[in-house]
Design a protein that fits this description.
- With 229 residues, this protein is an alpha+beta fold.
- It has 2 domains: 71 residues, no CATH class; 147 residues, Beta Barrel (OB fold (Dihydrolipoamide Acetyltransferase, E2P)), CATH 2.40.50.180.
- The strands form 2 sheets. It has a 6-stranded mixed sheet. The chain has a 5-stranded mixed sheet with strand order 3-6-7-5-4.
- The longest helix has 37 residues.
- It is built from 7 helices and 11 strands.
């Protein structure tokens, strides 16, 4: 019993650490932008304390501060399918829980040893699998979504740790994962939507209460097809 409880606690901790890594990565540009925007505020204060203050410079320096603050007040990028309550399938990769919207899901397959390797490709590209007359490009999802400093913890080979494949982009891509969890219903307000997609455009947002990251499958498929990360 204690062993099971210990494993459950360890799993929760791993998920929290993984999700916190994403949150830190998402928040860092915002924090840096705010700090940069706040720097000019010190100049007008020093100008007011000078023996002969000049009105013009403070006014000119105030503009970048207002612009910097205004730049942060950007509306979150909410996909059309998430403008009302929607359902997601939860699955796990290397301790991180991911969510894929059901409206963008094309099926779930068990792991297969019939995947044909393709030499010369990136390590995350596992090969091709024939399914319903179509060649599914199977990828090791963990090697793509996890930060570089966590990829080194992925020790077992793909054949030993991967159990399922999530089909997206009309079945063109199979996201290999360790397990498929459950289907949950989310309201738009349950997601912390991103305000910018300049980095990791496939990450639509995070669901804090569920400890998971929400995938934008179209952006993910685009990244896989073009190599833009």
């Amino acid at each position: 019993m204690k062993t099971r409880e210990t494993e459950q606690v360890r799993t929760v901790v791993d998920q929290q650490l993984a999700l916190q890594t994403y949150l830190d990565a998402l928040l860092r540009p915002v924090i840096e932008a705010v700090e940069t925007a706040s720097e000019p505020e010190s100049a007008p204060v020093r100008a007011e304390m000078a023996p002969e203050p000049v009105p013009a410079p403070p006014a000119e320096q105030a503009a970048p501060v207002q612009a910097g603050i205004g730049e942060q007040a950007v509306a979150p990028v909410v996909p059309e399918w998430a403008e009302r309550p929607f359902q997601c399938l939860l699955f796990k990769v290397a301790g991180l829980t991911l969510a894929v919207p059901l409206v963008k899901l094309n099926g779930v397959l068990p792991w297969s040893n019939d995947i044909t390797p393709m030499p010369g490709h990136a390590p995350w590209f596992l090969g091709l699998l024939r399914h319903q007359g179509q060649s599914v490009k199977v990828i090791d999802t963990a090697l793509l979504v996890l930060p570089e400093n966590r990829r080194c913890r992925i020790l077992p080979p793909a054949q030993e740790r991967l159990r399922n494949m999530i089909l997206i982009d009309e079945g063109r891509w199979g996201l290999a994962c360790e397990s498929v969890s459950e289907v949950v219903t989310l309201a738009p307000g349950d997601v912390r939507w991103r305000t910018s997609r300049s980095a990791r455009p496939w990450l639509a947002g995070t669901v804090i209460e569920r400890m998971c990251a929400l995938l934008d499958t179209e952006a993910f498929a685009h990244m896989l097809a073009t190599g833009e990360r």
